[in-house]
Structure formats: structure tokens, C-alpha cells
Amino acid sequence: MKKDLHPKNYRPVVFQDLNNNTTYLTRSTVASDERITLDGIEYPLVKVHISASSHPFYTGEERIVDIEGRVDRFKAQTARAKAAREARMAAAQNQAKRATAKAEKTESKKLSDQNR
User: pLDDT tens digit string along 77-92?
Assistant: First the structure.
């Protein structure tokens, strides 16, 4: 095996799941500026968005984990698209009504001119 392949700076680190505040104390080489005290001992803290305690595959629960608001943006986008589509449909219907009214007015004018 190659010598000095693996890092030497393993130390106890706490990983905290931001969804349910579960903490895991394990050994890692990850760097962190934040600290947390567990059982009177201070450890480096690494915050994670999802872990085995909150991931739907492991928990058996189906839920949406949306950190950046993607679902909300998608819903807003579809609502805007629906409103725009309805506005276009209403405008087209109004234009058709105006065209029909204009044609009827022109037709009635022709009929009145012929009856004179």
C-alpha cells in the first residue's frame, strides 16, 4: 500500500442536521469555524441540510425538503403562466366579440341602405 495516502488529522467532529437538529459525533477531517459543546466538551460543528435522520429514503416518510425555495418558485411560475394564458384567452374572446359586433353592425347598415 502507498504510504501517507490517508490524512492524519482525524478528530471528533459534530454534524448537525438542519431539518430536525439531530447531531452526530464522529471522526472527520472536515474544517469548520463553528463550534458546539456536547457533554461539556467543545467540538467543531458542521451543519448539513439532510442526513439519514431526515432523508425520506431512510425515514420512510415522503416529504419535500426545499432549502432554496425551488418548489415555491415553481408554483409561482405556474400560477403566472396560468394567469397569462387566461388573460390571452379573455383578450381573444373580447376581440372575437368586437369583430362579431362590427360585422353585425355593418350587415345591419347594408340592410338599412337597401331598404331605402
Answer: 999 999 999 999 999 9
